[in-house]
Amino acid sequence: MAGKRAEAFHNLEPSPVVPDGATPEVARVEFARRLSKQLVLKGWNQSRLAVEALKFSPPGVTMGRDKVSNYVRAKNLPTPVHLKVLCDALSCKPEDLIPSRGRREAGETAQIAELTDMGQGTVWLRINEVVPWPVALQVMALLRGSQDKE
């Protein structure tokens, strides 16, 4: 019985890596942004990362495409073991993926918004920025107001 208990304890995954001073939500968004950047630098998609990460996974540690997808979509943060596997596969350091404070480092440039011309005087706007709720609500009100004028 003691062996089963020890095995069950061994199979428990440690807590995800959350930087000091960061909320889990902010940390997930920033980790997702940084992971996506590394994928672009490598020219890999999520499936390729999952395949490459398996080569570095210790026995009993899984790294499937679904797990990678959840990281990229900012649904989850990796455990320390999964972070090491990702870093080994991507040939990067943990601090390249997990910021020290859960947000962009000073001097690091990032694309805040992406605009795609949709024709007929319209544009697809995608915003990639962590903002306080009041700011997000103001942006939504502005967008709703511009739709009402059409």
Describe this entry's structure for a reader.
The chain has 150 residues and is mainly alpha-helical. It folds into two domains: 2-97, 434 Repressor (Amino-terminal Domain); 113-148, no CATH class. Helices cover 51% and strands 9% of the residues. The protein is built from seven helices and two strands. It has a two-stranded antiparallel sheet. Strand 1 (113-119) and strand 2 (122-127) form a beta hairpin. Helix 3 packs across helix 5 (80-90). The longest helix has 19 residues, at 24-42. The radius of gyration is 19 Å and the shape is elongated. The termini are far apart. Mean pLDDT is 78; it is low at 1-14 and 102-109.
CA distance, first residue to last residue? 70 Å
CATH-defined architecture of the largest domain: Orthogonal Bundle
SSE series:
HHHHHHEEH
Q: Strand percentage, roughly?
A: 5-15%
Provide tags for this entry.
150 residues, mainly alpha, 434 Repressor (Amino-terminal Domain), two-stranded antiparallel ribbon, 7 helices, 2 strands, 51% helix, 9% strand, disordered N terminus
In a nutshell, what does this entry contain?
The protein is built from seven helices and two strands. It is mainly alpha-helical.
